[in-house]
Amino acid sequence: MSIRQKLIIGLALAAAVGAFVVAGMSGGTDTFDNVIANNPALEGFVPRRGTEVLQQNDVALLVAPGYRARITEINDIAIPESQQFFSESLRSATFTPGIGKVIEKLQPDQNCAQAEYWNVAAGESESQLIGWCFTAF
Question: Which end of the chain is more exposed for a tag (fewer CB within 10 A), N or C?
């Protein structure tokens, strides 16, 4: 094999490896959420935006230390505070669909949730709203 052929094969292999690296770095965008990354008050959505979950899946907003939250609605249905809980240790407001609740199971297909969050020191009057959508099956 000539040096020219070895060089061409080497460059082709390097290009292939580079393509795999770029694909791996740019793929899986559902694991990165710009809204979460750019808002120091928020730590995550459950389920994450754009993911697929079971119809009985929890819906939650995770907030940073010093913040509180509540799920305000799912699919335009108001979620009573009595049917959700806020975990101080996990810093999450969570609603779990179930029998006897305003939502017994998430609808098949797209679901959209809205939550309210606020800095505890500033008070609930300074709350902000955030929304996200996901799919249930």
Answer: N
46-81 residues labelled b (16+ CB within 10 A) or e (exposed): bbeeebebeeebebbbbbeeebbbbbbbbeeeebee
Q: Which residue has the tokens 């996200």?
A: 132
Overall CATH class of domain 32-136: mainly beta
Q: What does the pLDDT look like over 17-59, one tens digit per residue?
A: 444 433 333 334 445 678 888 899 999 999 999 999 999 999 9
Tell me the CA distances in angstroms from 73 to 26, 129, 133, one per residue in order: 33, 11, 12
Domain boundaries, the chain: 1-29, 32-136
